Amino acid sequence: MSSTARGRDLRLLAPAAVAWASAWLAVAAPDVAIASWVPMALAWALALGAFIGVVIVHRTGRAPGVRAVAAAVLVASAAAAVVVHSAHATALVRDASPLAAAAADHATVDVAVELTGTPRAVMASPTMPWLADDGMVRFDARLVAVDGRAASPVSVRVSGAEARGLGFGAIAGFRARVMRAPAAEAEGFVLRPVGDLDVRAPGPLLAWSAALRAGFAEAADRLGGDGGALVPGLAIGDTAAVGAELDASMKASSLSHLTAVSGANCAIVTALAFALAAACGAPRAVRVVVAIAALAGFIVLVTPEASVVRAGAMAIVVLVATASGRPGGGVAALSVAVIALLAVDPWYARDYGFALSVCATAGLLLLAGPIGERLARFVPGPLAVVLAVPIAAQLACQPVLVLLAPSIASYGVVANLLAGPAAPVGTMVGLLGCLLLPVLPSVGFAALQVAWLPATWIAIVAHGIAALPGAQLPWLADAPGAALLAAVTAGALWLVLARRRPVRLVRAVAGCLVLALAIPVGILVGGPAVIRSGAPGNWTIAACDVGQGDAVLIRSAGSTALIDTGPDAQALERCLQLTGVDRIDLLVLTHWDADHVGGSDAVAGRVGTVLHGPLDGERSDRVIEPMAAAGAEFVEATAGRRGRLGDASWELLWPPPGEPPGNDASLVLDLEMPGWRGLFLGDLGEGAQQRMLARTALARYDLVKVAHHGSADQSAQVYSAAAATVGIVGVGADNGYGHPTGHLLDLLASAGTAVVRTDLAGTSLITVVDGEFELWSERRARAPAPRAPGTGGTGTAGGGTARAPSGADRRLDRRR
């Protein structure tokens, strides 16, 4: 097989793919496996074997094709060895860190960290920002010191800090509780501040860029409207002013990438610098140097976070291709960039941003040209090029986007065709205005006014496309959905771009195309009904996969209760469709945080009674008003309240009268049904759990809904007293908080409680059959082996089940 395709050098694609797969597997392994020398030694042994093979092949004078294959195997095995070695080295540094001992002891320590990311608001739902904790942020950082002594610079995530004085590059000192993050997380530890932060400002260069960004945001705010909110996003990726409605429309229309610092932003900056240098008559090498210098300045301006550096690396790919003077050089440069980035940080392999950057760049390099040539037969050449770019990027990225959310922006390509041409204008003119504001304020603001026009056009397109019927169509979830979409896309591209299509194959190809389209159309139309066809109809408990949040359905004798709604109405609606639930007799809102009430719009108009705790002003009003208008009855309740649901009886164990609203005022529900009993803990923290124990003697339970998504803020006595068979953890994948924590999983293991996690299993249905719990899970979930108490790791439902097949029932041992 030729190593080139239409002039493109594809020989390094396979080594890049092998490096990616090796890094993905390495960081997905448990901590003990990553830190072991065995995988690293095996990887290097394979690389050595490949090297010996290459030497033998060359000395024996084999054919050029055999030598090329041997060389490719050597490069691939060497790349795999490098990334596995890097993951191993990082794991050793994490294990040797003082934070590891602090996490194991559940201790608090004094730390100093350097911010490597811009602080982000602690907000569970972007659609309900008023429910966020005001002033509290989370950020990524690099460890500097522990208890006053210098420490190895491991990556950490800080959550629940006050925003005052924080900025990229700042040094923050504080006392923190330490939790070990899962091995697959890029950050090794999660730190929760205890008390105030002592913040030192960043260096002069970063302080200058921060002041420039702040001035730019203030000037853009004076423009008003959605256009003013989008200008900073287009120019420097600052989306702080983008409201919830506009953000939702941008996502629904597949335009949110325009306001993120991506390879496209970097490419625009470098292309402009390259063109200016060319206009001055500079030779090619000088143009590349100027473009790289401009890119470096842009990265400093927008802060060199990991995502920005990644985007910059993808832009450098284009520059390398240009400098090489060879067609197809960009594919080889992209492959080298992928291997280099994975060698520096193997955790990029599991980063969706990295995957989208690579896919978008690959799409532009491999697909934009052929698509443009095909379009040029029907439209003028320049227009064909303009249209080909967003089409190529969208087609390449869509399979990855399906992994993030099992839906397709039906009009995403159309939206990008309409809005895409305006984005470079908004980016270049907005960036020019940003740079001119400090020196020529009037000229800079005039540039922002010009940039406001394309930004407003993008907002109009986003709102218009999002309002169309069927703007978001459901798709098969997870890897099967991504694989199906990739196959359909590849087939369609082959049909459209193939140069030779003999007449005798036209009917066969057309038939294959109809079949390929019929499968996804069936999934799009059926959506959750396809999944529901394999789900048991006699389920009793449904733990809905709503991301980082809680939503649990209970069914008894024809009546249905829903405990919390999760953060997202669309995710809850999908669960309701999957379970076939149309009416909610009792809705229990444990408290008013967005990850528990943000999806309430999905059930407005189909709720009978709403049971809730102490009201919390505007936070609770915004949730109550739509359902009250639709006829729901609201009951504020405290400990001691009782009621019935079908054949079940329930009682509130918490909160006591007078408890102020918040996590520790969560409604705690004791639900007793024929044959089993459940305890639902909301987001109750350890202190409140202890106070509840002092008021109430807990019974033995068959099922417990774990508090606060599996955080470390738990009482061992509660889970020991409950001694439940099953523990449900409503938690989002890659949630950034390290949930569920090893401490919580240790508590459940000590109590003999099997864990059902929505991040691994998706929506999970539990059925009570002949006195036994049976579990059906929506997706194939990686289920680590059970642990002895105190050994860390991840527990899972099913005892020793190594994998939980999608749609398969698993019997859970019950001691009662």
TrEMBL record:
- Stretches for region Disordered: 780-816
State a single Gene Ontology molecular function. hydrolase activity
- Highest rank taxon of the organism: Bacteria
Signal sequence span is none
Q: Name one GO cellular component term.
A: plasma membrane
Biased composition of type Gly residues is found at: 790-801
- Regions crossing the membrane: 38-57, 69-88, 258-278, 285-302, 308-324, 331-348, 354-371, 383-405, 425-448, 455-473, 479-497, 509-531
Q: Do the record's keywords include Hydrolase?
A: yes
Where does the protein principally reside?
membrane
Q: Which Pfam families match?
A: Competence, Lactamase_B
Record carries keyword Methyltransferase: no
Q: What are the residue boundaries of the Metallo-beta-lactamase domain, all occurrences included?
A: 548-734
Localisation per UniProt entry: Cell membrane
Entries under InterPro entries matching the protein? ComA-like_MBL, ComEC_N, Competence_DNA_uptake, Metallo-B-lactamas, RibonucZ/Hydroxyglut_hydro
User: What is the topology of this protein in the membrane according to its UniProt annotation?
Assistant: Multi-pass membrane protein
The protein's matches in Gene3D superfamilies, at most eight in alphabetical order, are given as: Ribonuclease Z/Hydroxyacylglutathione hydrolase-like
Q: Name the keywords, alphabetized.
A: Cell membrane, Hydrolase, Membrane, Transmembrane, Transmembrane helix
Q: What is this protein called?
A: MBL fold metallo-hydrolase
Species annotation: Agromyces agglutinans
Lineage per the UniProt record: Bacteria, Bacillati, Actinomycetota, Actinomycetes, Micrococcales
